[in-house]
Amino acid sequence: MSKKQVLGFLMNEDKVVLIRKRKGTWQEGRLNGIGGTVEEGETFHEAMVREFEEEAGIRKPVWSEVGQINLLDSDSEEKDLIVTIFFAYASVDDLHEVKTMTDEKVDIYDLQDVFKADDVLFNVKYMLMILAESIDNPFLSFKFGV
After folding, report:
1. Torsions phi, psi of 6, nearest 5?
2. Which of 144 and 69 is assigned the larger pLDDT?
3. Which among 8, 24, 37, 67 could bridge 86 via Cys, Cβ 3.0 to 4.6 Å?
4. C-alpha dist (Å) from residue 19 to 9, 45, 63
5. Which phi and psi angles does 46 have, rounded to 5°?
6. Sorting pLDDT into bands at 50, 70 and 90, what band is 139?
7. What CATH number should be reported for the domain holding residue 99?
8. pTM for this prediction
9. Per the domain annotation, does 50 fall within a domain?
10. Per the domain annotation, does 144 fall within a domain?
11. Is 24 left (phi over 0), alpha (psi -120 to 50) or beta?
């Protein structure tokens, strides 16, 4: 059976909420979106709302699914990991309410700094570039390979 996870980006035209990861050797010390594992009986959307509240301290009920990444087991056709990616627009009030709730630090970053930083996962930079473009252009609509 596939493991299901969510990954979310709360952002506006020039700010984004990211978490500095301490877990997972491939991402330890690097910035990523906020997310985690979908629990038994939970939808992807419910998991995104819960994970963001657990890690960033605010309940943001309006998340838009923008894509899905499917990682396959190299020895079979079975999907090992399904990551559903979400976006939510951040108001000024949302940004003021964000706080670290776990041992992984959550903070607000300027998008331009994120794009230049060496400690941000490459795929995160790519996703943020696309999301930032869609905020600037309300007529642009996209979904990552779903």
Report:
1. -125, 155
2. 69
3. 8
4. 10, 19, 18
5. -60, -40
6. very low
7. 3.90.79.10
8. 0.85
9. yes
10. no
11. left
- Burial status of residue 74 (CB atoms within 10 A of its CB: 0-12, 13-18, 19 or more): exposed
Question: And the tokens for 62?
Answer: 């309006």
Q: How many separate domains does the chain show? A: 1
* 140 pLDDT more than 60: no
- In this structure, is residue 32 part of a structural domain? yes
How much is the mean pLDDT over the chain? 86
Q: Could you tell me where the DSSP H helices lie in 14-110?
A: 44-56, 92-97
Q: Is residue 71 part of a domain?
A: yes
Task: State both tokens at 140.
Answer: 């642009």
Long-range contacts of 125-133 (CB under 8 A, 24+ apart): 127/9, 127/33, 127/67, 127/85, 128/9, 128/11, 128/16, 131/9, 131/11, 131/66, 131/87, 132/11, 132/13
Which range of residues forms the domain containing residue 38?
3-136
